[in-house]
Amino acid sequence: MSVARSIDPDQIGFDPARLARIDEHFGRYVDDGRLAGWQIVVTRRGEVAHSSTYGLRDVEAGAPVEQDTIWRIYSMTKPITSVAAMMLWEEGRFELNDPISRWLPEFADVRVYDKGSALKAYTVPAIEPIRIWHLLTHTSGLTYGFAQTSVVDALYRAAGYDLGVPPGLDLAGATVGMAKLPLMFQPGSGWNYGVSTDVLGRLVEVVSGQSLEDFFTERILTPLGMTDTRFWVDEPNVKRLAALYTPHPATGQAVRVDKIGAFALTRPECFSGGGGLVSTAADYHRFTQLLLRGGELDGVRLLAPRTVRYMTRNHLPGGGDLASFEPEGFAETVLDGIGFGLGFAVVEDPVPARVPSSVGEYYWGGLASTAFWVDPAEEVTALLFTQLMPSSTYPLRSQLRQLVYSALVD
């Protein structure tokens, strides 16, 4: 399945010559060796205005990026997990204020880091339970071990929670281990990017009675026709998978990292709702169109329009932006002027970030520099796929926004 241009761009407000700047600009990243290759899709009002590929999905094999190339989407898994949770919420299976310990009793007596070092950390009891909305908004106090910015991060790494979970653990076992580690702050009092969405995925399993893999397949991916989106790449499709790269510390040239990239080739023991999926541009395009259309696509409705609108409002305490919470670790977003909803970053004010966008636009990205956004005001969606880790290496996302919005001329 491909995402081919479906209409003349000028019919939906885009200047074709200005859209051509996208390929010219991002082509330079490939030509000078910083990226292996990429795929970009831009739509408006449900019509594809721009769809392009450039470079190689596998430099060493000389294999080009093609329409059906499979990409590791890492944290772009999180919005799908959030949709899964809200589908259960729409069924009345829980309320957003419910403590997660009702379904995950291991979180009944969590503790919060207070002071000390990773060798001797002092903790205090949580005065507020972790609630479901805390998981959806990353205000739970959970973190990522790979962030390497705090004592709690170090405790995660010492327990085996770095880029993944300790070997031999399924999602249930991994979640039990996470609950034994201290929180970075009292639930609801801060914002920190972490394993909240993995725990949310476990909640989906317990509430639904299905594995996260089965829930995704039966309730989301199959109904939407997202046939290439799954937790690993099976043998017949291995050649379609893009290789994973990282910048050489001295030259900036993309260097292959098979040790990490190979994880996508085997069925995982732990289904990571926070970062486990692979997908294609055509598949994720369908997911963004579902969101843009208020939870329905081609006769398949997963969410009600009001639920999507509610999810994509800023739910941060006090209505602040991410910068006001002074998060310590890594995040797939700038912080100034950006709020956070139930699974998505949300633009509150585009001016502080110095990047054109619309108030109410929502988005997220993945560790290997993939990204998407949905702009309800302009009825625009955009997708960027490449495989360079970490995503903070180059300002690909802000540059794509510059080029897309400067091509919108109606």
Automatic annotation (TrEMBL):
The record's InterPro entries line, in alphabetical order, gives: Beta-lactam-related, Beta-lactam/transpept-like, Diverse_Enzym_Activities
- All residue ranges annotated as the Beta-lactamase-related domain in the record: 22-397
Q: Which residues cross the membrane?
A: none
Q: Name one Pfam family in it.
A: Beta-lactamase
Name of protein: CubicO group peptidase, beta-lactamase class C family
What taxonomic classification does the UniProt entry list for its organism?
Bacteria, Bacillati, Actinomycetota, Actinomycetes, Micromonosporales
